[in-house]
Amino acid sequence: MRVRLGPAVATLLAAMLLAGVCQDAALAKDLTVAPVAPLPDIHLSFGNGNPEPSQVAMTVELFLLLTVLSLAPAILVMMTSFTRIVVVLSFMRQALGTAQVPPNQVLIGLSLFLTFFIMAPVWQTMNKTAITPYLDKKIGSDEALSRGMAPVRDFMFRQVRKKDLALFERIAHLPETPGTREEIPTYVLIPAFVVSELSTAFEMGFMIYLPFLILDVVVSSVLMSMGMMMLPPTVVSLPFKILLFVLVDGWTLIVGSLVQSFH
Fold first, then answer.
1. Other CB atoms within 10 A of residue 206 CB
2. How far is CA 110 from CA 47, 86, 207, in A?
């Protein structure tokens, strides 16, 4: 069966086909000439083989700065009040028996902000006496380091225990007992300070544990007298611990005691 198209229909179909071809060609042309965003040029160069002494000094200072930044977490943890705060807060959570409440992120965040609050005077002194003069090129790097360590050493000396300091002086085989603070090396002061902080934190943790331990003993005795030996005492004592902690305003007491222990 053959179908014959009239001249008008054939002309209309040819016009539609030609229009479609022209539209596709225009679209293809637009796609081909669309501008492409150029990629930025990246160049890495190490200079010539004979650098000037000033360039070498700047490179050494840059490497030293990167080294200090890589050690910044250890410096923050070991040479500030962070150690005592985070250990005491961990003891508090274990004494309450609330497993992961508050979570670790909250305890570490609170410890960091309390550390910033306690160490703010020390850092302000460092900025005033060491960092700002060094950036203004009024003092050299050695003098800036010496001035910057002075307030940190003073803070650690106020918190370190004499017996811990004497222990590390003896282990370090110092030639004689130092007469002044300036004669004690920093590498001896830092471990003595950390040990003193841990000792103080454990003493505060014991004081926090004591009332909750008494509450556990009381609840355990009551349960045994009632014949409920199969019921864990911690399940019953937990609500009373939380109630006691809230009634005595425990967070204010613990945080206030921590901050005041550094003054």
1. 12
2. 47, 8, 21
pTM above 0.85, yes or no: no
**192-212: pLDDT as tens digits:** 999 999 999 999 989 988 888
* Integer Cα distance of 232 and 196 in angstroms: 37
- Decide if 91 contacts 204 (C-beta within 8 A): yes
DSSP letter string over 137-163? Answer: TSS-HHHHHHHHHHHHHHHHHHHS-HH
Question: Could you count the other beta carbons within 10 Å of the beta carbon of residue 44?
Answer: 4
Residues 6 or more apart from 231 whose CB is under 8 A from it?
223
Residue type, 249: D
Look-up: residue for tokens 């085989």? 173
| Among candidate residues 143, 104, 98, 138, the one with its CA nearest the CA of residue 237 | 98
What is the enclosing helix (H) or strand (E) of 25? helix 7-32
